[in-house]
Amino acid sequence: MTVTVIGRGHSGTRAISHTLSASGFFMGEPLNVSGDLLPPEKMYEACRVFAKYVEYKGNMEWDFSKVLSMDPTPEFITLTEEYLHTVLESESALKGWKIPETTLVYPWIVKMFPDIKYIHWVRDPRDCILGGHLTDDLNDFGIEYDKTDDVRFNRAVSWKYQREIMKATPEPKNVISVRFEDMVFSQDKTLERLSDFLGVPLAKIEMRPDSVGRYKTDEGTHMFDFFAEDIAECGYDN
Q1: Is the alpha carbon torsion for 135, 140, 143, 145 positive or negative?
Q2: Structural contact between residues 97 and 28, judged by C-beta atoms closer than 8 angstroms
Q3: CB neighbour burial string for 42-73, b if at least 16 within 10 angstroms, e if fewer
Q4: Residue 10 has what pLDDT?
Q5: Over 90: is that where the pLDDT of 238 sits?
Q6: Among 28, 29, 201, 206, which residue's Cβ finds the most Cβ atoms within 10 Å?
């Protein structure tokens, strides 16, 4: 069985990567402290190849129709397979990988790996954008948007883009959606859901309650109008 995690950077994806590792999943090698498979450069370049086929319509609207209708290009496939070579070559019965940039190419990952298991990892965007991440500036991965000098705004657009690409991609055969906050406050119940989905028992790891709701004491801008619909869809309080 192979599993991957789909979720923006700073959405708490390290928690599920560490959980999978502690439960006997081979998550590739080497890994960094966040549980990301390294080195990442091939995946970054695959993201830029993918982005060539996404059209920016303006006003935070992207047209994914081309990437949804076409097959992954040979260059993309080669880059992805080279990045994942330790996972793909592993004989482990339980294996997978996690790196946030996988979310930027989600439609083509599903086309390459239709039968693996996908964990959609979601975190309240108001917390998610408080810290910096490599994907804060989508331009770095070839994705067009209305970039500003406001770092928080750019991070917010990055969160929105990655949420939109997750919603636009037809659901694969095996997918589950998990909120980071539920992993923090209802870990036993969340692990039970994930264990049922994966068919194997999962280990508990330490979670920090203070990682939830940090935006409530944040003095910067952390709420944007375009978050409202997704906050409601994900069951967060406005």
Answers
A1: positive
A2: yes
A3: bbbbbbbbbbebbebeeeeebebeebbeeebe
A4: 86
A5: no
A6: 28
Domains of the chain with CATH codes: 2-233 (3.40.50.300)
Buried b (16+ CB within 10 A) or exposed e, 176-202: eebbbbebbeebeebbeebeebbebeb
What predicted TM-score, i.e. pTM, was given to this entire model?
0.95
Pairwise CA distance, residues 12 & 211, whole Å: 9
46-104 residue pLDDT tens = 999 999 999 999 999 999 999 999 999 999 999 999 999 999 999 999 999 999 999 99
> Distance between CA atoms of 139 and 68, rounded to whole angstroms?
21
Classified as helix, coil or strand, 75 is helix
Residue 188 to residue 175: CA distance in whole angstroms? 20
- What tokens does 31 get? 């890994």
Residue type, 92: S
Q: What is the distance between the alpha carbons of residues 161 and 135, in angstroms, rounded to a whole number?
A: 11
Identify the helix (H) or strand (E) that includes residue 111: helix 106-112
Phi, psi angle pair for 223, to nearest 5°: -120, 130
- The CA distance from 206 to 15, in Å, is 9
Q: Is 235 a residue whose pLDDT tops 70? A: yes
Task: Look at residues 141, 144, 63 and name the one whose alpha carbon lies nearest to residue 102.
Answer: 141
